[in-house]
Amino acid sequence: MQMFLSNFFDNPERLNRWIDIAQSSFLPLLKGALLYSLTLAIVSFFFGLIIAVLTALARLSGIKPLVGIARFYVSLIRGTPLLVQLYIIFYGLPSVGIMIDPFPSAIIGFSLSVGAYSSEVVRAAILSIHKGQWEAAYSLGMTYWQALRRVVLPQAARVSVPPLSNSFISLVKDTSLAAAILVSEMFRKAQEIVASTYEPLLVYAEAALIYWMICFVLSFLQDRIEHKLDRYV
Amino acid sequence: MITITDLHKQFHNLHVLKGISLTVEKGKVVVIIGPSGSGKTTLLRCLNALEVPTSGSVQIGDVKLDFSQKVERASISRLRKQTGMVFQSYNLFPHMTAVENVMEGPVTVKKESKESARAKAANLLSKVGLGDKLDHYPAQLSGGQQQRVGIARALAMDPQVMLFDEPTSALDPELVGEVLKVMKELAQEGMTMVVVTHEMGFAREVADEVIFMDQGVIVERDTPASLFASPREERTRQFLQHLKA
C-alpha cells in the first residue's frame, strides 16, 4: 500500500494523467447522469407510482380476479432479478417480434419494478388511514372514488413519503443496470471511458461520486417534502 | 321525516338490532340512550347506511330504502344526502383547514363553486362560534372546536336530518358545554335530530322524546320528563339508577 502510494505520488505523469481524465470525463458523466439516469428514474417512478396505486387498489378491492392478478404481478416482479427482467424485455422479446429501443425498454422494466415494490407501500399507507375518514367522506355523500381521491389518498401520500423516497433513491442507483441493455446512462458512459483510458478506479469512483451527489440532493429534498407535509399534524 | 320499519341488523351470528320500528316527525329531537352494546349506535349508523341493515326499511324525507332487497348504490347516496352525521371522534379531514373541511362536501359532492362554498362555510363556522378559526388545521383546534367544525361540515350539505353519534363522549368535561350549546341552538332552529348520547342533562332539556334501548330492542320511549321521573320498565329504571350512582 505504502509502496503504491509513494510510487503514485512520485510519478507526476500518472497524477497529471488522472487529473486530465477526471476533468475530461466529468462532463460526459454528468450529462449521462442528468440526461439519462435521472430522466430514466423520474419517468419510471412516475409510471411506477400509477401502477403501484392501481395495484394496491386492486389488492384492496376484494374482487377475486383483480386481487389474483395484482398478487401474481407483485410476486413475479419481486421474485425475479431486475437485470433478468431488463434482459427479457430488450434481448428476449425481439425473438417474438417485439423490438423495443433501449431507453423505452428500460422505462418499461423500471416502471414495472417500481410498481410492484411500491404497491405494497401504497397498500399499507391506505390501510393505515383510519376507517372514520372513509365514513366521514361517505356520510357527506361521497362515492368510493371521491373519498379515495379527496380524503384517503392525500393522507396516504403523506404516510408514504419516507418509504417512497427511499425507493426513488434506490431507483436512481438501479438505473446503472440499464447499461446492460445499451442505454447510454452514466454507468455505461463510465464503462466507455474506462475502455479507452484503462483507469477503472478513477472513472468508476468518479461515477460513484456523482451518484452520491445526486442522492445527497434527493435526501435533502425528501426532508423538505416531509417537513412541508407535516405542517398540519 | 324519519320512518324506520322492522329494522334488523346481524353481524355474522350476533343479532344487534332485533326489529326496530320508529318514526320521528319533522323538527323533533330524539335522544337515544342505553347501555353499551344495546345497538343504539348501530341504529344511528343504519340511518345513513354506514351500516347496511340485514332487513327492514328506512325512509328519510322522500327517500325510502328497503333493505330486504338489494339496495342500489345510488339510493344509498341519496339517503346520505338527506342526513348529516357527527361522529364521536370528529373524523375531521386532518389535511384540510376548518373551512376546507366544511367546503369539501358542497364542492366535491354538490359541485358548488369554491367561492360560494367558502362563503357558506365561513358563515356556518361563525354560527358555531369558530369564525376566527377558518384557516386552522384540526390538529390546531381543541376537541370541542373540532367537534363544532364537524357539526358545521355536516350542516353544509343542507341535510334534512342530523345524526349525532355520542358527540361529546371523547371530549374533556370542560369542553362538553360548547358542543351541547351548538346542538341546542340547532334544535331551537327546528332541525330534526337523532342523538345518541350519555348527556342526560341535554336529553332532559332539549329532547322531545327519549328512547331507551337495550339488547337490540326499544324498551321504552317517552317524553324526557316522564321517562326520567317514572320509567315504566324495570330495565329502564335499573339503567337510570346506574347513571345516578
Structure commentary:
Chain B: Residues 2-240 form the ABC transporter domain. Chain B: Keywords: ATP-binding, Cell membrane, Membrane, Nucleotide-binding, Transport. Chain B: It comes from Brevibacillus gelatini. The complex is a heterodimer of chains A (233) and B (245). Chain A has 233 residues and is mainly alpha-helical. Chain A has helices at 2-10, 12-61, 64-78, 82-92, 102-128, 131-139, 144-174, 186-197, 200-229. Chain A is built from nine helices and no strands. Chain B has a single domain (2-243), classed as P-loop containing nucleotide triphosphate hydrolases (Rossmann fold), CATH 3.40.50.300. Chain B is 40% helix and 25% strand. Chain B is built from nine helices and ten strands. Chain B has helices spanning 40-47, 73-82, 98-109, 114-127, 143-155, 173-188, 200-206, 224-229, 234-244, and strands at 2-11, 14-24, 29-33, 55-60, 63-66, 83-86, 161-165, 192-196, 209-214, 217-222. In chain B, the strands form two sheets. A six-stranded mixed sheet of chain B has the order 6-7-8-3-9-10, sandwiched between helices. In chain B, α3 (98-109) packs parallel to α5, α4 (114-127) crosses α5 (143-155) and α5 runs parallel beside α6 (173-188). Chains A and B meet through α6 and α7 of A and α2, β6 and α3 of B.
Keywords:
heterodimer; A: 233 residues; mainly alpha; 9 helices; 83% helix; B: 245 residues; alpha/beta; Rossmann fold; six-stranded mixed sheet; four-stranded antiparallel sheet
